Amino acid sequence: MKSVLITGGSGFFGGLLKRRLLDENYRCTNIDLVADPDSNPNLISVQGDIRDPALLDKLFAEHHFEAVFHCAAQLAHDAIDDNLLWTSNVDGTRNLAEAARQHSVKKFIFISSNCLWASNLGHDVTEDEPPNPIELYGKSKLAGEQVLADYPDLDVITIRCPTIIDSGRLGLLAILFEFIDDGKKVWVVGDGDNRYQFIYAQDLATACIQSLAYEGSNLFHIGSDHVVSLKKVYEAIIREAGSRSRVAHLPKAPTIAAMQLAHRLKLSPLGPYHYQMIAESFVFSTTRIRAELGWTPTLTNEEMMVRAYRYYADNRQAIHARTDVSAHSKPASMGIIRALKWLS
To answer: Model pTM?
Structure first.
């Protein structure tokens, strides 16, 4: 039985990947700041910090990992402060790579982000195009990639992914789902015809597992197929919900200006990346990952968002009572957006 380390395995995607690996007969060790809700005879759960080199050295020495799946990250809307975000996402990544090197663990799979860009490039974005992050989270993920480039002796597979969606994904999505569940207007900025790609969590987990058999290092973009407009995605959820909601439009320029002001005043969970991209199109090219891994997506944006909404609608009361869970497993705070709901 092969032994692997998963960082962030108590969170939304890390937990899903952990359960997939357990189902495929891997012995899994999870390290996370948050307590692990799962138990399994082949699971070891460690509530700890990847910024602690001594703890990592102990784990690597004890468990003789075949691979590291680095899913842990501090998010901008959940981190206590900027230093926590940066040191977790950058220094923590360096600590893991150093431990892998010291203990001869060659395979290192890193979950990166499409937050490395914050504008519409006008075409499907390939792995060769230079990133241009504008906020701290995106900058930290790019810095994490650059840290791993200093370890050529590791086989590093970096997977840049858009927003990960499946049953159980909450965070900022819970705000949208609450609006729909309560029959409120769902607002788009501009005409709502912008196309924004998501990735189905199970499809991302499949790519991670396929990466175990890949020889050498590589960088892959991943995402859904047949990406339709955000307006059409929202309408699909509204139909599924049987909701009185309808899509309504906000003027682009003044809305983005208001979002920027609300962020500066710390009144909104939406940061610079969100208000740059909320009315833009952004789609990754998946040509390389298909060719190199033989990977293909299985769900469209609409299908995965409907799954996520169903989970929210079925568990709403329990969801809003959650506290000590990862950022993507609980609702984000609405802040000033609650006033918009009241007006809807």
So the answer is: 0.94
The CA-based dihedral angle spanning residues 151, 153, 159, 160, taken in that order and rounded to the nearest 10 degrees: 30
Q: What is the mean pLDDT of residues 28-39?
A: 96
107 and 182 housed in the same domain: no
Same structural domain for residues 75 and 214? yes
Alpha helices in 24-152 (DSSP H): 53-63, 82-86, 92-102, 136-148
If asked whether residues 40 and 146 sit together in one domain, one would say yes
Which residues neighbour 214 within 8 Å (Cβ) at sequence distance 6 or greater? 155, 157, 292, 293
Q: Are residues 96 and 157 in the same domain?
A: yes
Please determine, for residue 276, whether its predicted confidence score (pLDDT) is greater than 80.
Answer: no
> What is the DSSP annotation of 259-289?
HHHHHHTT--S--HHHHHHTTS-B-B--HHH
Distance of CA 14 to the CA centre of its chain: 10
Residue spans of alpha helices (H) in 12-171: 12-23, 53-63, 82-86, 92-102, 136-148
How does DSSP classify residue 34? Answer: S
Average model confidence (pLDDT) across the chain: 94
Widest CA span of the chain, in angstroms?
Answer: 58
Say if residue 333's pLDDT is above 90: no
The pLDDT of 89-111, averaged and rounded, is 98
Residue 156 lies in a domain: yes
Is beta strand 27-32 parallel, antiparallel or unpaired with respect to 43-47?
Answer: parallel
Separation between Cα atoms, residue 340 and residue 163, nearest integer Å: 24
Domain of 238 in residue numbering reads as: 173-195+228-282+300-343
SS3 for 28?
Answer: strand
